[in-house]
Each structure stands twice: as C-alpha cells, then as structure tokens.
From TrEMBL:
It catalyses: CMP + ATP = CDP + ADP; dCMP + ATP = dCDP + ADP. Keywords: ATP-binding, Cytoplasm, Kinase, Nucleotide-binding, Transferase. It is found in: Cytoplasm. It is an enzyme of class 2 (transferase). The lineage of its organism: Bacteria, Pseudomonadati, Pseudomonadota, Alphaproteobacteria, Rhodobacterales. ATP binds at G9, P10, A11, A12, A13, G14, K15, G16, T17. This is Cytidylate kinase. Coiled coil: none annotated. It comes from Palleronia aestuarii. Residues 5-46, 61-197 form the Cytidylate kinase domain.
Length: 201
C-alpha cells in the first residue's frame, strides 16, 4: 500500500531538509519536484521552448550542473506558470507518489493538485527575510558571490510569481498542517514534521 507525504511551501522554507528527514525516518522515497522545473528551466536556457523542454526531460537532466543556481530558479518559476509545462510533468510525479515503499514529494502544488489524496500534507513556511538569509548563507557557502538584498528580492519575486499564477498557485491545501519554521531550529522543525507523519501512520 502506498503512503504519500506532500510537502509544499515557498522557496527556502526548509522543505528539502524536512522532506529528506521524513523520508529517512520512515524509509520512503523522496522527490524534490522543484528539480523538474529547474531542469526544464535549464533546457529553456539551452534554447528550447518551455513546453518542449518539459516534455523532453530525461532522468539525467535532474543531475545537471547549475540546477541550484539563481538563473535556473528564475527560469524554472517562469516556465512553471505555463499550463503545458505543468501538464507535461504531472504523470511522472503521480507515478512517483504511488511508490509501494511510500513517497515524500516536495514542491508548491503537491497537496493541492498532484496528490490531493495524500495521507499527510504539510505546508512549510517562514518569513521572507529568514528564508532569504538561509538561501544567502547556502549560496555563500557554495562559493557564490551575492548580496543579501539581491537574494531577498529574488525570493520575494519568486513568491509573488508562484502565488499569483492562475494554474496551481502556491497555497496550503485545506487539510494541510501549516508548519512555520521561522523560529525553529532544524532539529525542532524536523522533529515536528516526523511527529506529524508518525501520528497519521
Ligand atoms: O523548489 P524550487 O525552488 O527548487 O523550485 C523552483 C521553482 O519551480 C519554483 O519557484 C516554482 O516556480 C516551481 N515549482 C512549481 N511547482 C512545484 C515545484 C516547483 O511550480 N511543485
């Protein structure tokens, strides 16, 4: 029997960390669905049309260099507003969610569109300044030269685009548990997420 955990929320809220922790704690497989949109964005940067780019994705695209860059993120969020792109990526995500070992998917529309029947839905969020600070430190640790204000502006722009689009906008599902990580340590946030999943198993 499959068991699906949907983890949604804005950029840099801690979805990735929590998803990996939940997957590890229960032996579930994990899919970072943002990578599908980033890989699409990379192919757009290569010169492809966004819908053709999404339709042409192959597994090795998810391992390309540069997927975590700000350029790939910006291109991803533009492509993500196009219904044909979202449609092209739907079946792969739904198949993944049906993994008999259990699955954790993180993204923006997992609980609302991709897996409305998920057994657990978490909406992970944090204040924009805090998310930008985390992303800034991550980028700096990776050797990127950037300013905090630039990262904050990027986060705000991406939030606005993700929340305002007509197709699958970012918002909590009606039955999602909202987890604000602004004032939590990683250990605290992780413990809470694992506890919520454990209570539904
Ligand atoms: O999560 P990540 O920052 O890697 O996602 C990059 C972009 O992909 C997001 O800003 C969003 O526009 C898009 N995305 C989406 N739906 C998802 C996952 C990501 O629209 N399920």
């Amino acid at each position: 029997m499959s068991f699906t955990v949907a983890i949604d929320g804005p950029a840099a809220a801690g979805k990735g960390t929590l998803s990996r922790a939940v997957a590890g704690a229960f032996g579930f497989r994990h899919l970072d669905t943002g990578l599908l949109y980033r890989a699409t964005g990379m192919r757009v940067l290569d010169g492809l049309d966004p819908v053709a780019a999404a339709e042409a994705l192959v597994p090795s695209d998810l391992e390309r260099e540069g997927l975590r860059s700000a350029e790939a993120a910006a291109e991803a969020s533009r492509a993500a507003a196009i219904p044909g792109v979202r449609a092209a990526l739907l079946a792969f995500q739904r198949d993944f969610a049906r993994d008999p070992d259990g699955a954790v998917l993180d993204g923006r529309d997992i609980g609302t569109v991709i897996c409305p029947e998920a057994e657990v839905k978490l909406f992970v969020t944090a204040r924009a300044e805090i998310r930008a600070r985390r992303r800034f430190e991550e980028l700096r640790a990776g050797g990127a030269e950037t300013q905090f204000e630039t990262v904050l502006a990027d986060v705000r722009e991406r939030d606005a685009r993700d929340m305002d689009r007509a197709d699958a906008p970012l918002r909590p599902a009606k039955d999602a548990v909202v987890l604000d990580t602004s004032d939590l340590t990683i250990a605290e946030a992780t413990a809470r997420a694992v506890q919520i999943v454990a209570s539904r198993r």
